[in-house]
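Lecture notes, unit on protein representations.

Consider one protein chain, 337 amino acids long.
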Amino acid sequence: MVSKQFLVKRLLLLFPVLFGVATVVFAILHLSPGDPAVTIAGERASQEFINEVRSDLGLDDPLWQQYVRFLGDVVALDFGQSYQIQRGTPVSRILANRLPITIELALLGEIAGLLFGLPLGILSAVRQDTWTDHLTRVGALSGISIPIYWSGPLLILLFAQFLGLLPTSGRIGSAYFVETQTGFILVDTLLAGNVAAFRSAVTHLALPVIVLGIYQMALISRMMRSSMVEVIRQDYMRTARAKGQGEKITIMKHGLRNAFIPVITVIGIQFGSLLGGAVLTETVFEINGIGTLLVDAISRSDYPVVQATVLVFAVLYTLVNLGVDVTYSVLDPRIEQ
């Protein structure tokens, strides 16, 4: 059980991190080339109109006033309106529409990686230096080495073009319309009771999830193997075997819990990266998540969207790290001390 003192301490540490990220984002965007007033008004607009837009945005104010106003808006969750992507639309609404898409994709990719990576890592460690171990290590190394921008199109060619089993892009077939309730297409189709739409969503998400799952599985299995190999050589594991306890019970009851602690770090880091936007995967499979939103906002100089998206990345990372710290303390209560 996690103590309240430990949890409060970790929550308080989030505020300096978020404050620092907000400061860095503000500084970088104000030092970067380009004028938001020109972006909004258009390059052919008159200088008078550009000056009027700049005054309305408060860009004529001293830098410290703009910084204080920016921090106040962040606290109030007011990120302004989009300049280019959806002109005049509140950025918070754009993020609310895009963020669930990436969260769903990240969760499915992480689950796929865990379902295959953990058993393969344990099996590889238990059967060390056997053909099973060698094949697992080669597979894991291949999964880490193959980039997504190569594996994605390759899987599209195999399953979509040659075999014709899976669609190539999108989250659901164009023939289906499902009312958005949670933003998660699989959940929304189930809530709507539309089985055909659910099947369509599953087939559309299969390829991007496989691409993400392969990379996650490779990292998790490698870390699980290394950690488990170290644990099974410990004295308490030998003692359990000497007392006549079965090998499977010894590994699952005594070894897995201690071996899982370093793996939690990898899972947290990788899940945070996926939440930060699986940009390549979203681009290859034409999924309009928060990763592609950031790339689009940068290319079109939509500063409010860039600021808000980076801040959302920071919040997601800090929350994932908080979850990792809490999981540490559950697996090993000594960590709280």
